[in-house]
UniProtKB/TrEMBL annotation:
TM region positions: none
Xref: Pfam families: HTH_17
Domain Helix-turn-helix: 27-66
Species name: Edaphosphingomonas haloaromaticamans
Domain of life of the organism encoding this protein: Bacteria
InterPro entries attached to this UniProt entry: HTH_17 (IPR041657), SinI_DNA-bd (IPR010093)
GO molecular function, one term: DNA binding
Name of the protein this chain belongs to: Helix-turn-helix domain-containing protein
Length: 71
């Protein structure tokens, strides 16, 4: 891989990670992972899935979903 190809690959990775959301709602997490809503709440309750509360809204950090799914 040439230096310019390496730089282009790094730039592409930086852009794709910059476009990832910081957090997602439970309904979005269900769609992204294919894990049922009930199972997500079980994972949250057991501490296997991190959450952030904003008012009454429960948000899941995107990085936590990626860790859970191994992506």
């Amino acid at each position: 891989m040439t230096k310019s190809e390496s730089s282009a690959a790094e730039s592409s990775r930086a852009r794709s990670s910059a476009m990832e959301p910081l957090t997602v709602r439970i309904s979005t997490a269900v769609q992204l992972t294919g894990i049922s809503r009930s199972r997500l709440y079980e994972l949250i309750q057991s501490g296997d899935l991190e959450t952030v509360k904003v008012g009454r809204t429960t948000l899941i950090p995107y990085k936590s979903l990626k860790t859970l799914t191994g992506v």
